[in-house]
């Protein structure tokens, strides 16, 4: 039997439950000393070819349409992507794959995401992650993921218009399931298994959809192909249809 996590309830007073407040709280977060030290060190050292840039080097908040039909949950900021630019999936190869497809679907205003102030707008999607700081070797610990999950829970509680929740990778998939439990949402029986392109209906409405993460490792080895990636978003659109 799966152990049930505690239910997290949003505070009724003292905190305004809106996305800008969550973004502020994420940016100021210091819960994970290892991740904060790593993100700051990457921002200090930088990558060859980026030495003249000022890196963000802090936890990265979610962004997108405040009334989305699609919620996209990734793993964590890339060391020289989001940790550099300060916006999810912006400035690295995973972002190239994501925004190119979102633009094809009419969700992103541009296929290119280069900086947080490039003018890119999302229509119908909100992008967030299981972890908000860049982790060494792209591997946050379970404790670090537990620390971050409050922010995902708060976002999910606000984004009431979401019809498809897309998990990019197993860690994001597990984070979504844990966040649902901690919000007190109905249990999924049987518990869905992570698989590329798999979709499970949710008792509260809508679907949980999973995909391999568009990491360089997955896309360069052919584990995730253009056709597979496109198919996931075509499926998301179909699932969201009335």
Topology record:
Blueprint: H1 19-27, H2 33-45, E1 63-64, E2 70-74, H3 82-85, H4 93-104, E3 125-129, H5 142-158, E4 164-168, H6 170-182, E5 199-201, E6 207-211, H7 216-221, H8 226-240
Parallel strand pairs: 2-3, 2-4, 4-6
Antiparallel strand pairs: 1-3, 5-6
Structure report:
The chain has a single domain (19-240), classed as Uracil-DNA Glycosylase, subunit E (3-Layer(aba) Sandwich), CATH 3.40.470.10. Strands 1-3-2-4-6-5 form a six-stranded mixed beta sheet. With 242 residues, it is of the alpha/beta class. It has helices at residues 19-27, 33-45, 82-85, 93-104, 142-158, 170-182, 216-221, 226-240, and strands at residues 63-64, 70-74, 125-129, 164-168, 199-201, 207-211. Helix 1 runs antiparallel to helix 5 (142-158) and helix 5 packs across helix 6 (170-182). The protein has eight helices and six strands. A hairpin with a 5-residue loop joins strand 5 and strand 6 (207-211).
Oligomer: single chain
**CA-CA gap between termini:** 35 Å
CATH topology term: Uracil-DNA Glycosylase, subunit E
What name goes with the CATH superfamily? Answer: Uracil-DNA glycosylase-like domain
Mean pLDDT: 92
Strand content: 5-15%
CATH architecture classification: 3-Layer(aba) Sandwich
> How many E-type strands?
6
| Structure annotation, total helices | 8
Instruction: Give the biggest beta sheet.
Output: 6 strands, mixed
Counting structural domains, the number is 1
Helical coverage, percent range? 25-40%
Tell me, briefly, the overall form: globular
Low-confidence stretches: 1-16
